[in-house]
Write the structure tokens for this entry.
Amino acid sequence: MAEDSDDGMDAFIDKFKTERYKNAFDENNWEEEFDKIPMFMKKAPENFDPKEYPDLACIQALVHDEDRSPEEKAQSLKDEGNAYFKEKNYKKAVIAYSAGLHLKCADEELNIVLQTNRAAAHFYLGNMRSALNDATAVKKRKPDHLKALIRGAQCCIELRSFADAVQWCDEGLKVYPADKKLLELRTTADKHKRAADRDARKAKAKEKKVLGEKEALLAAIKGRGVKLVQSSKPRRHSSDSDDEDEGSSSALAQLNLDGLSSKDATGAQVFLDEQGSLHWPVLFLYPEHQQSDFISAFCENNCFIDHLVVMFGEELPPWDTDRKYQPQNLQLFFEDEQKESLYHVDLETSLLKTLQHKRFFVKAGTPSFIVLVKGSSFSKQFLTGKRIQGL
Amino acid sequence: MLSDSEAAELLSFLTCHTRLDVKAQAMECILGLSGHRDGRRFLHSKPDILSALFEMTSDPSVAIVKDCFHVFINLSADETLHKVLVSQVCVLPSLLKNLVDPDYLFSDQICTILSNLSRHEQTCRTVYPVLQEQVGMAKLVEVFCDEGYNPKANLHYIGPLLSNLTQLQDARNQLMDRQRCVVQRLLPFTQYQTSAVRRGGVIGALRNCCFDHAHHQWLLSDSVDVLPFLLLPLAGPEELTDEENQGLPIDLQYLPEDKKREDDPDIRKMLLETLLLLTATKVGRQTLRDRNVYPIMREFHRWEKDVHVSATCEKLIQVLIGDEPDPDLENLMEVQIPEDIEEKLKEAYAKEQEELNKEAEENKRQEDRRTDEMDR
């Protein structure tokens, strides 16, 4: 839909976004750099041999000759700067123009040209702020200086201040209503501005969508009466909303944090499917062998036996050296830390039912269950001294 | 009506030097006259009274000047007085000069007068050249679009003025000057919430511009990009799919959920008419199809309750989803319609309008019945 400008200006300017001009001065301290360069020192360095550095001697003579008026010197520096500019030596051009401006000569027109040209040199060096400052200064002193008006608009575009760019163009168009460059820049700036507005709307819509999904998830979990427990290091969630919102949004934050901090670092998190069912990441722990299994998406409507039959179906896990972890032998428990109890889970129950148990607390967003083999010596040992409850 | 001697006496009171209470009474009398047809007919026959009256727009008393302008607003609303106002009282140069004076207190009144004078083609043709010479369409638009131009006047009535002026080809040419930025400045005002007068005026001017099919391509191009500004007032908060969003003009993508449509049904109708005008050319039809106008119209049609506006919307949708006409008929505005068919079309159109009016009346009756029931 958008067409690039014919003169390739857009492409040329686009380059500055990615390539830093070589040998560019640091935008913030280029003025300090001047004094270090022999050619533009304020005082001639004591020792140099004019025969060895004839051009340096020449420049020195030019610049520091007391017989010449400031206007003449400034004129020479302008010419110097323009020469460097033609050679694309923008760094030196800036120095020359600055030296000219520094003389503060009485020729206002000359000063305007020096500053406008310096703005251009800064522009090609990628120093947009400096260029804009120069253009602004010129505009203040001479509101109808076309080159400064164009440059100002261009800088604003580069700096992505599109509304300002349109403003610069409109100021220019008041004086030069038919200037092609100003018209073109205005159209470009306006276009970019509208695209930026669109991007902001898009981001907002996306944010809203994500938030909505999170809220729906939390509502689904709460609505089922499933209790989430925050991790031991609660994160402070700053917000202006009231306590309830703060609670739910920090719980959401916890959900995020906890979901991602699961030991397997799979980033698995509970989610709501299209049919409105929750799928949980679930951890099965086998304390006998210090092993665990992680199911990334256990549908709440499925029963434990469904999964266990698959997990311990055809092949038993390698750590099951006694070959005793067969589905029909397994016992499932969940732990109630607070009451230091274990609750026995019927394998035929659904995950949902289990999670809804009044003493089930989902920790770190991942329900976990302890698996033992019925009647095994380990299980007898494990269960000794613990409070066991049925469901 | 006043006798000759009474008229002469009245005239003698109409000077800036007259005592304030006498002046005020004279003004009140004339204000009364200007308010009804016979009074205006009388004033029409007394150009010297009108001239003296016009001089009083420079009166030192603000209250007098206010009434004075009120009289001229009434007079300018009456087409029979246009000739005497423009040609004999010669109101235009002074009005135009003050219009663009950023400190003038009565610029709004001037806008209304000029808007009245330019409504009908005949006087418009006399007003326009003077305006173009003294002020220029470009300057008029500039003043109109600069919201802080005159702190004492909102200048909203320049909107209808522009709409009226653009009934003339030359005014449209000035507005659509490709070497300058004129018409582009009007576009953001199609959604200007604060004033329906301004909004309607701008849309009216744009609609008139779209009669010039030679300009369609340029108007739809990036140089102007009129399309989004015509669609935004018609677009609503309904969520479109990502796919539909991507195809839309940038300004219509991802509209927030509190987006409101244009309130005024007449303005909505004008917008649709403008879009329809754009579909007269092949490039217009192509552009509107490519830029995904259809989903916007689809949602709009679902929302629209006014039967007249709906009918216009349906016409637009028909063109958007219909087949391309034969190559000979590509520019619908240039198609030669045989006389007998033209007659039939006129009849059909008249019949349609009648039916729509009946439908509108029936809807109103139903609504009234419902309201009655509620009172009980």
Summary: Chain B touches chain A through 13 residues (CB under 8 Å). The radius of gyration of chain B is 24 Å.
